[in-house]
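ok here's the first one, seq then struct tokens
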Amino acid sequence: MMEWEHTRRVALTDDHLLPLINVVFLLLIFFMLVGAIAVPERLDVLPPSSVSAFRPNEVGMDIVIDQNGDVLLDDEIVTMERLVSTLSGEEAPDRIRLKADANLEANGILDVLDILRDAGVAHVQLVTVSKR
């Protein structure tokens, strides 16, 4: 009987393909996990750009203002009256991060800054996007 050589070669090439498939699946899983970390924002806000190297603090309360003037306080859309009552309460924060859309008129930010000043908030950080 004659032994066929091509059957032997096929078996050898399959052994070399398995580690490559394992690496591809590990990379796929890695990028799926890394890409899913960012939580989407409730309001579509594009902050203004700046050249500052300062990083915002991670403690405190977040206030987000979109280009229409809608205010989001810790993931909840609030009115200006509700913002005043929340910041005037006993649990008012002393640090606030303010993230406003770059297309928002200055009056929208000034109204919120007036409310923060009247509530006695000591530190307000304006969140921006760094220029590249």
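and now the second one, same deal
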Amino acid sequence: MSEQNKWWLWRVLSTIVLLLLGVLASATVAQAQDNCRQCHGDENSRIESSVHGFLSCTSCHTDISGYPHPEGASLDKKESVATCTSCHKGLVTDSYARSFHGKAIHFGSEKSASCADCHGAHDILGQDNPNSKVAKENIPETCAGCHGEASPGFSEGEEHFELTPAGSGAPMYYTGKFFIWLTLIIITALVIHIELQLYHNLRTILKERKRR
């Protein structure tokens, strides 16, 4: 057999193996979904109609492999954010981490909004879907889950923005710069004040010694 024929045979066999592995993986996921569906049928229906319909339950609930579930299997807010950001990278992740919500969750808050609080957990829909929690018309109601009776103005804000001199993140960018410079100026002035006070005290002590 020529080298070229061997190469083509190797490619065909590799493709067949990969397809078989894909089929086995799909069968495993389907079996896992069937197992979950026996008790969590409602959640499963929501997932199937969401933008995450291609995922299995264990894609997010990675620590659950059987029944009964281990103690503490439900995700707290920090774990929930870590689960979402394991797939969602870039602007969305970075902007959330910089936000008040993200910082509060990072430090252990169970009251601040996680990804699931705004976007949903099992029923996540795109923002163009009128039933989505983050559709523009629904944002005030979503925010009202934590902020009481949120006004329509909540829908005018933007959660995921870049901190740049131009664009929707510009006000936050310049506000951040202002407070950075304000902090540096205050600290510098404080250090100068302390040094002048120490210099004054030193001169006073030296004068007292000369008088003696």
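notes on #2: The chain has nine helices and no strands. The chain has a mean pLDDT of 82.
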